[in-house]
Amino acid sequence: MKRFFALAVTAAVTMMAVACGSNEPKELDTLSYAVGADLGLNLSLGMGDYNLDNDIVIENITDFYENGDLMGEDLQQVRQRMMEFQYMRLMPYFSAKRQRDMITTDMPDTLPALPELYDETFTREDVSAMMGKNMGAYVKSLKTDFDMYWLMAALNDGLKVDAHENIDSLMRISEEQMQKTLTDFAARKREEAIAERERQLVENAEESAKWLSEVEKKKGVQKTESGLLYRIDREGTGAQATEDTDVVRVNYEGKTRTGKVFDSSYERGEAIEFPLNGVIRGWTEGMKLVKEGGQITLWIPSELAYGERGAGADIGPNEALEFKVELIQVTK
Question: Which helix (H) or strand (E) holds 97?
């Protein structure tokens, strides 16, 4: 069977929970219809084996779409559980199904039984809820205003399709038009993302330069030839790192130029140890400027940190950073 799925992840099965208007629009919204059709067809044609409780899926889509946090711990836990479900239940199930499909017999009742997809650890209800939350997150991440009447209509139309060859006869636009609409939408999103990244590259570079120029004026701040800014907040009395292969044990807190803490050993309650050739260049240089028992603040230009690529959700491209570091131990 041809794979129709164009935008949604496998776990994203339906959007029925999002509220829609009560009056039918005069003109069909092709994008909204195509997105809804994509999801509905995946539910009807691609995920029949899951036997999900659609009511639970719908309830959780609505809840997450309206109240969920894309960066929240709850979503991370859901995704971790979904990975566990995939490896512990889905993979064995579909492996056994493939083996059954390879057996030729005139007596299908004699085929080996498929393993149960759900158990006490992963119940049908729990998996349906996780699917819904994951789908709600997917829809929220699109950051697009859909016409929910047409999205819902497409979902309902898609759920009626029982075979791939029936798509064009049961849907209000052709499969070819759906796929073109989804492809064009994805291309537009990519263009918007590229434009946004270019804007961030310029803005972060300019704002970081201004920020570092103000930091440089602070009392006690010094500047190295590479452009690294630092201040010794507490003099140490112990050993000092001199080689890139030296290993340091530290406590630290990292902030963006706006003051957001993105990493902290203090919050984790545990110091960290690493070789100086295994970290960003600003750290490699900066940790050679302080002795054991001392504390240093580093203001690191982007080119000595993560450069144009940035890092994670908090560190943008071309963004300068600030670190407060206590040097506990140096191991040669």
Answer: helix 91-101
